[in-house]
Amino acid sequence: MRCLRHGDADARVGHVIWIERIMHAFDFDALHRLGLNQTLAAQWLSSPAADHSQLMRITELQRDCLQLHDGRDEYPARALPALQASLHEAGSGLAVGDWVAVEAHAHDELWVAERLAPSTHLARRANDGRRQPLASNIDTALLVMGLDHDFNLRRMERYLALVQAAGVMGVVVLTKADIGQDVEARMAELHRRLPRSVPAYALNGLDEAARADLAPWLGLGQTLVLLGSSGAGKSTLTNTLSGSALQSTGGVRRGDGRGRHTTTARSLHFCLDGACIIDTPGLRTWRPDADADSLAATFEDIEALARHCHFRDCQHEDEPGCAVREVVPADRLLNYHKLLREVRRSQQTPLERKAQQAKWKVIGKAGKQRSQDKRRGER
Ligand SMILES: Nc1nc2c(ncn2[C@@H]2O[C@H](COP(=O)(O)OP(=O)(O)OP(=O)(O)O)[C@@H](O)[C@H]2O)c(=O)[nH]1
Ligand SMILES: [Zn+2]
Question: pTM, whole model, 2 decimals?
Fold first, then answer.
């Protein structure tokens, strides 16, 4: 992908045509196909920006260069420095999936002037502690896990907790049901461990039937992401859901069923059943991020039981009168504690982390000193 530069004659001619073409009336149907829902549409139409700019969705983002989609075509664009600054100040930033107000300025460039508040937002914590936006306006996360050696309930629980904490619906998809062992036993194990409200499917990602299984999540106007470890079957399932195996390879255009053509973006796949899938490199290597409160909300069984523990600050380890330990499976409890620790650590600023490390160092030294003293005393 490249951004347009001034003086790039060929690009400029093409661009003038784009500008004339894109400045058309609001077309809900075209944008609905890109994942726009009624709520966001109403939010847009009531904003002043709707009078003089165009609503588009970010389909790709590399440094300052953006790719935008208007439901018909893709366009390169940049974000206005003022927008970047205000988002940065709020500890946020643009992400694939954001809906934005686009202005065509005189010097034949498209500029993103505003962002519609996203309904949901997946982010990760970078090494320096900053939040790094990954994807916005996601309705459903398909949590993909293979029924082979990939199967790991603890990891599934972790994905689920963290997408739910971001307000995204988590749906468990166990792939490789055609070759997996103990499929029924593993499904039963999953149902015992996870809340009953979590939908779960075992399927063969290579089989067309997967579309029927997942139909409730694939309707028009829905946006999905697929999360899971490498080799779990995300690409395979994306291909099956988007029918790309049926399309001639290399073709980037396909009909949208209404005689019009829609350009397929690299990070955005259109499902045969109407939904779109966002797939960016960042999501592939996603390290989930959430705050302690929303995490606790997804382990509400533990939080509810904890109110009946004898001690108010019960850690549910070996305290007497613990109401949690005897009901909640030990492994789930262990996972919960591990996640909480991780979340607390990731919420620290670099300075706080340093202070904590220094504290542990002092405690460690004191411990060493004590055991040395003790040994000396024993001699
Ligand atoms: N038999 C069978 N094979 C599957 C299924 N799903 C995926 N595979 C195979 O598993 C391998 C990995 O699948 P991918 O779809 O590439 O996995 P991925 O999650 O996209 O992996 P990354 O791109 O590394 O993140 C491929 O050889 C697929 O053909 C399934 O449901 N059944
Ligand atoms: Zn307890």
Answer: 0.74
